[in-house]
Amino acid sequence: MKTSVLFILLAGLSLPLAAQDPADTLSKKTRYDVQMNLSGSRIAGNFNQLQLAGSLTFNVHGKHWDIHNMTNYRYTNIGGALAEDNWFHNVSVAYFPGTKKLYPSAFYTFDNSLLYRIRQRHIYGAGIGTIQEGLKNTYVRLDLGFGYENTMYTGSNFVNSDVVSSQRDKALILGRLIHKHEFLDKKITLNNRIIYRVSLREADDHFLMISPQLAYKITNNLSATASFEYRLENVYLEGLNRINTVTVFGLTYKVKG
């Protein structure tokens, strides 16, 4: 007699907080918001799998500056074999000299990925950006700049590149577009993030990621979400794919204070 046990745990937590520095004499000079998410699943029996994922995002906004931090982690174990143990961390700083129409910014990104056979990747740089204000229920931010990447791979032979090495160092041109729009009395929110970078060393070495998310507000605190990620790397390790996609459906619970 065969038996199987299926246990799935899904948890989502989002905690946006806002606060003002009591030392400020002008209202709403400094504020911050924090968001945390946690999810996981476990399957046991004929098929064994454990998945865990978490993220922490916080933003600190001043009158003339902005700090954004995002950290993601994903763990997957299938049948006792480790499939994912991936970290992603990004921090960026922007300074507004009196207007958000044009401002300088700097950033740093770290990530590793068993899925893409990246042992470690460091990207840092600086540039200029613009935020379009005054648009009803819409937020648009565009950043452009130059950076430098240092990446260590588990492998040294790449498609679309003559460079044979497990370490790839390169100067970059980078761009990022962030868009948010609320409609139907703010019951539906569309978020989208587009990231593009191209190597100054090899013109064929470029990367594109498009990450739209649609959220439908069920109650003031509960929303149903659908997310899609499209990732294109034109230079990639042999044995991997040039294009990868991820689709996620879930529920998000928010507590505001």
How does this model look, in words?
The chain is mostly beta strands and 257 residues long. It has a single domain, classed as Beta Barrel (Porin), CATH 2.40.160. The protein contains no helices and 15 strands. The strands form two sheets. A 13-stranded antiparallel beta sheet has the order 1-2-3-4-5-6-7-8-10-11-12-13-15, with no helix packed on it. It has a two-stranded antiparallel ribbon with strand order 9-14. The protein is globular, with a radius of gyration of 21 Å. The model is unreliable at 1-27 (pLDDT under 50).
How many alpha or pi helices? 0
Under the CATH scheme, the architecture is Beta Barrel
Helix percentage range: under 10%
Structural class: mainly beta
Distance between the termini: 53 Å
Task: Give the CATH level 1 class.
Answer: Mainly Beta
Number of strands: 15
Shape: globular
Mean of the pLDDT scores? 84
Which percent range describes the beta-strand content? over 45%
Helix-strand string: EEEEEEEEEEEEEEE
CATH superfamily: monomeric porin ompg
Report strand order across the widest sheet. 1-2-3-4-5-6-7-8-10-11-12-13-15
Low confidence ranges = 1-27
Number of domains: 1
Rg, please?
Answer: 21 Å
The main β sheet shows up as:
13 strands, antiparallel
- CATH topology annotation: Porin
